Every structure is written in C-alpha cells, then in structure tokens.
C-alpha cells in the first residue's frame, strides 16, 4: 500500500492552503470564492472573499474589524458540515476568542489546519483541543529551542510589582488589539487587580465584544483623555496597541513606564529597539516545548509547517523520525504577536 496522497486534500497555492476536493481555501492571503477562517487576526482573516465559514465569534470579530460587508456571504459553523463532499468541523485552538483548528475529512484521510494555537490556559478564550489526524498543519512562530515562555502569571506579577514601585508613573502596556489585550486584562483580574484599567480607543470595540461574550474584563475606562487628564494619571495601567507608542498620543502621559506583552520580549534586543522598559513575555502561541509536545501527542502521519521558523522543526522531525514538510507560505505574521 502506497503513502497517503495528502495533496488530494490540501495543497499550497499562492492564495494559501487549497482543498481541491472541496474547492475552498483555509486562511487565504488573497480574496477567493470560498474561505474557511481559523481566527480573526488580519494575517489569517481578510476581507473580500465570496463566502466565509468560521466560528460565530470569528465572524463577529471580522465584522467589527472590516464592516458587516466583509464578505458576500458568511456561515457560522457549529458541528460538522459537508462542503462539496469534505466533512469540515471547527475545534478550539486556545489562541484568541473564536480561534479554531479546522478538521477536514475526505478520501479516507483527516487533515487538521491548526492556524495559530496555544497550550497555556487563556482566561479570554476556550482551551486548545487535541484532534487526532493523519496530517497536522502547524505554525512555527517560536519554533526554536531557545523559546520557552514563562508562566504568564509571573509576568503579570512583574507588572504589578512595577506599579507598586513607581506609583507616580502610569504604566502603558502595548498589547495587540485582538486577544493579547484582553488576555492581559484578564490576567490582571485573576491576580486580584480590581482597579479601573484604561484602554486605548483602538481596543474598545473588541474589548466590549469580549464582555458581551462573557469574558469578565471588569472596569474598563477610555484612555482617550485630554493632556491635562493624562498628565494627572497616577498609579494606573493603560493598555494600548503597540503602534500607539509611535504616535503623539503617548506624549500626553507624564513619564510613563513603557511595557510590551509579547513572546518576542524574550529577545532583549527587540525590547531595547522598541524602547521597552518593562518587557512582559506573554504569548498566545506555542513555545518550543509545547509545539513539539503537541506534535507528539497528536502523532500525525505527517506534519506541515505553514509559517515561522521551519529549519529547527524540520531537524527535530528528522531526529525523531517524523515526516514533515515546510510550506513556505507567505502573507502571515503581518501584525505583532
């Protein structure tokens, strides 16, 4: 019996991963007739497709970000559905609210496109669900042995210690608008911080949606205050997109402590380049131990690498006698982690 022909169910194209049997794409980087979307980050979820299938939360998030007409038609998937003879189901990825792995079954084979995923408990979204499969498509954002993320609760403890040490200085924390910002807020609440948290206007609608979906973010207040109000702010935590640090908005605050919540903060040079005084290593992606452990747990016949660093993971596959393939897809990771 020959090797399974995984190309019958998934093949890489310039538009993204294509399922020839079902005639659809998963997380395409260009507008296509039919797209299945893993989650709402802009390097995976783009507007302009003919039809979009995704979780209801991802569809809602796309509408918030792109407007209600982001696609010609949309369908929320809850349970298995048939798409041109392919059985499709969505399973939690533990990355951000609404994020899912997409399971495809056709021609006696099962493939799982994981999108971005995390194995660390995230109070702002559903946890990762291991899905048995023949072919596993994995990210490789932090696919180097040097990346081992610390406990996020310990990173939040550093933030709170800094707030206590410098009560006269507001703490401005850069966090990506979808997922990371709400996770940082929830980690603060879990650590017992019940004071108001100020959020940049770019985070407001997505944060409101999280609250609507039952994520208890607590007392959030707008950080779109005038200069006098901002100058008077003390012993406060302000969450904003990292891009805001390069805008005049940040100059309203008096001597702020600049922090940034990202897995990339493990690289000190990146923190220095961004002028980050308080790097917080908080990631919504798997680190090297969780990435390799996930592949071992799922134990697919083969795995493909969609984006990120594939060289070390390919070497790991060789040493562990696992079949692997780098796809070299482009268009991902256009937004900060």
From TrEMBL:
Gene3D superfamilies referenced in this protein's UniProt entry, alphabetically: 3.40.50.10890, Ribonuclease Z/Hydroxyacylglutathione hydrolase-like
Molecular functions (GO terms): RNA endonuclease activity
Lineage: superkingdom: Bacteria
InterPro entries: MBL, RibonucZ/Hydroxyglut_hydro, Xnuc_lig_assoc
PANTHER family: BLL1145 PROTEIN, CLEAVAGE AND POLYADENYLATION SPECIFICITY FACTOR FAMILY MEMBER
Protein name: Metallo-beta-lactamase domain-containing protein
Source species: Maritimibacter alkaliphilus HTCC2654
